[in-house]
Batch of 2 targets.
Target 1
Amino acid sequence: MQMRTNQEWLSDLRGDHQDQAIEDLRYVLTRGLTYALSSRIKTDLESQVDDFVQDAILRILDKMDTFRGESRFTTWAQKVAVRVAFTEMRRQRWKDISLEDLLPEDSGDYTPLVLSDPSPDPEKQTAQNMMLETIDGLLKDDLTDLQRTALLAIIHGGMPIEEVAIRMNTNRNALYKLLHDARKQMKARLLEKGLTLQDVLEVFENE
Amino acid sequence: MKLSSDTIRKMINSIQSTRDEELSCGHCYDELDRFIEMKLEGKNVAEAMPLVEAHLNICPACREEYEALLEALKAMAG
C-alpha cells in the first residue's frame, strides 16, 4: 500500500487517484477494525467489518472537510470507522429494549430504592439503609424525571448514552449536559448534607 | 426500585468524578484522534488534555470507543 501524507490522502481521495486511495483506506480500516472488534463480535466478524468499513468510507468522504489536520489522516479515519461500528453494534444490541425495560419496578410513580444485595453484617446493613435513604432522596427530590430516568438507564441498565438519547428524542451531547447537571446537583447536595463521597463508597464497598 | 451495591458504587463514582466544566461527547470525539496519538507517543495526556481524559473516565460509551480505537491503531502500527 502506498504511504501518503495527510495532504496526499486528501488530494487522492478527492482527485484522479480516488479509486486507489479508497482501496488503500479500505485496507487500513479493515485491518484496524478487525483487530479492535475481534473480541467483541463472535460471529461473521469479516462480513460485519466489511459493512462497517463500507459505511465508514462513505462517511469519511462526506466529512473530509471537517478533518482538522491535528492527527494523521488515518487516525482520524479510523476514529470515524470505530464510531460507525459502535453505533451499529449498539443499535443491534439494544434494538428491542425500552427505557421502561431497564426500570421494571418503576411504574411511573417513583418507588423508593431498596438494596438487592444488603450486607450480612447488621451494623453495616443499617448504615447502608441510612445512606440509601439519602441517595433515594437525592434522586427523588433533586433530579427531574428525565435526569433520573437517564441516569438509571445508563448506570443501572447499562444502556449506552446514544441509545438512551434516541429513546428520549434528544442527542448524545444534550443528554450528556442533562446528566452533567444531575451529577453536579447530587454532588452539591451530598456535600450540603455533610457527606463526603468517600463516606458513601465505604458503606457500599465489597464485602 | 432495587439497586445493587455495585450500581450505587458506580453512581457515586460518577458523582465523585464530576467537574464543574466537562467536555460533551461531541467535543471529546473531536479531540480524540489528537489525544490518542499523544497517548501512543507516550506523552502525558492527563496533563496535556485533562478534559478529554476526564470525559473518558466518566462516559462509558466514549471510553469504549477510545479503547477500540487504541486497539485498532496498535494493529495498524504493528
Target 2
Amino acid sequence: MIIEVKKLKKTYGGKIPTHVLKGVSFEVEKGEFIALMGRSGSGKSTLLHQLGLLDSPSSGDIIIDGISTINFTQKQKNEFRLKKLGYVFQAYALLPELTALESIYLPLMLSGVPKSQYIKKALEMLEKVGLSERRNHLPKEMSGGEQQRVAIARALINEPAILFADEPTANLDSESSETVLKLFKKLNKEIGQTIIMVTHEPDDKKYVDRVIWLKDGTITSEGI
Amino acid sequence: MNIKAAFFLAYKTIVRGSKGTLIMTILIMTLAYVNLIFISSIFGGIVEAINEQYIDNLYGNIVITPASDKIYIENKQTSSINHIPGIVAISAHYINDALISYDEYKDGNNIQQGKWKIKSVNVEDEKRVTAISDSIISGEYLDDKDRDKIVIGKEIAGGQGGDLDYLSLGGVLVGDTIDVKFSNNIKRTYTIKGIFSTKNNQADQMAFITRKEMESILGVHNLSSEIIIKTIEKGQEEQYIESIRQSGFYDEEIRTWEQLTGFTSSASKSFMMISIILGAIGTIVAGITIFIIIFVSIVNKRRQIGILKAIGMEESTIILSFIMQAVFYAIIGILLGISIILFVIRPFFVDNPLDFPVGWVSLKITFDIIKISNISLMIAALIGGFIPAFRGTRESILDAIWG
C-alpha cells in the first residue's frame, strides 16, 4: 500500500465554515492509476491537494509509503514533495524563462544531482514523452499538449512514488488530451507509476484502474 | 537553500525575461546611482570651492600669528620653515587697519571712506602662496619696487559688482589716487595699481602694498603680523605644525586654515548634512524603486512561485533568486553609473565648472563617496529585493497557483 488516507477532514474557516472533506478514508496500492471524480464542489481537487501535501488537512492522516505526514513541518513537506511526489497541474505550469530541457531537470538540480547526470536523465525523459526535438524550446514556442507533456516529464524526473494530476487535460483539445492520457497509461503500465488524477471527463475512466467518486466531501463509491 | 538553483533561476530570468524591462530597470538603477554620487560630489565641490578660496586668498594652509603678548613675529626663523619637507612657500605680512579715503573732485565735499585691512607683501613670496595676483580684474599686481602704489579688492573699490558696494569708495578706478591713514596716524597717498576680485568676500575687502613701504610707515624691520604657509597638499596641515614649532616658533599661535574659517566650517557641516540627507533620500528612493521592480516581478510570477514551491523548491531558494536579480541590477547600475560619472559627467564639469558665488565649483568625487554610494545601493538592492520576495513566497502554494 502506498497511500492510506484516514478520516481526512478539511474545513475552510470564515464566518460560516465550509466542510469540504468530511472524513474521507481510502487506500491506494502501489502501481494503481486512480481517478478522483465528482461534480464541481465535490471536494476532489481539495482531496488531491491534501494528498499532495500542497495544503494541510483539518484532521485525519495521510500515510504515504508508510510515513505519517500529518505532523510534517513545512521543510519536511518541501523535501517530501521534491523527492516522493510529482505534480501535473491543470494549466501547463511551466516557467516561461526555461526551455523544455531546463524545466525538466530543475527538480533534479534542486535535489543536488550532478549536472552531467541531470542533463542525461532529462534528455531520457524528453525522449519518453516524445519531445526530444523540442528540448531547447521555451513554453511559448510549444503547443498546450507539448507543454503538458513537458510538465509530466518534470513531474516524473525525480522518480516520484506518486504522480498527482489535477485535471491535466482540462485545457487541451481532444487530440492532445488523448496523447496525455495515453502517456499516463503507458507510464503506469511500463514503469508501474502510481497515478492519482482528478478529472471530470467520464471518458477518462477507460484509462484508469479505479475511480473514487466524491459527493459533498465524502466518498460515495469506488470502482470503475 | 540551494544557491546553484537560485542562481540558475535568476540568470535565466534576466537573460530570457523581457529585454525592455531589463533595460528600464538597469536604467533606473544607473540613474539612482548617478544621483547618489552627483549630489554628494556637487556638495563636496561647493565645500571644496569655499575652502580653496580661503586657502588661496586668505590663509594659505597654515597661519602663524604673534604670541598673545606680542604685536609682531620676529622673522629670524622664517627661513627654517622653508626647509621643512612638504612646505611649498611662505609669505610674511604686516597687517594694519587703515582708513582709506577717496575724494573724487579733490574739493573735500564728497569724500568716500572706510576702514579696511591693508597687508604688505613681498611680491614674489606672495605669488607663491596666494592667488590674489591671478585675480586682478583691472590694472596689474604690485612690484617689489612699488612704494606709492596700492592694490585693492573690489569691495573697497566699489562699482565692480561686489556685495558691499554701499560701503566702498564708490567706484574708484586704476590710476585714481586714494589717501590712507594708518593706525599710527601716518597718512600716505597711493595710486591704485590694480583691483582684484576673488570669490571670497573677506579677501576682496583687503588692500596690498609692498613690504618695504609698510616697514617705512610702521618704522619696523624684519618683523611680521602674520606668516602664511602653503603646504604641498591640503588636509595634512596638522603634521607640519610640530615641525614649524620646533623650527623656533615656540610661543606663536600656529593654526590651520580650518581652525581659522569658522564660517566655512559651519557651512561645510551644513552642506555635508544636506548632502547626507539627500543621499539618504536617494538611497531610500533607489531601495523603493528596486522594491517596486521586484514586487511587480513577483506579482507577475505569483503562479510560478507557487509551482516552484509545489515541486519542492524551498522558499529561501526562491527569495535568494530574487535577491540575486536585485543585486545584479544594482551591480550593473553601479558599473554603468560610475562609468557615466567618471567618463562623462566629471570631465564635463572639469571643463565647465559651475560659477557659484563661493567659487568655481566642480564635482569632488572621492573614494569615500563612491564607497558609500556603492554600499548604499547594494543595501537598498538587498532590502528592496528581500522584502517583496519574502512576502511573495509566504503565500500558500494553492493561493499562489490558483489565486
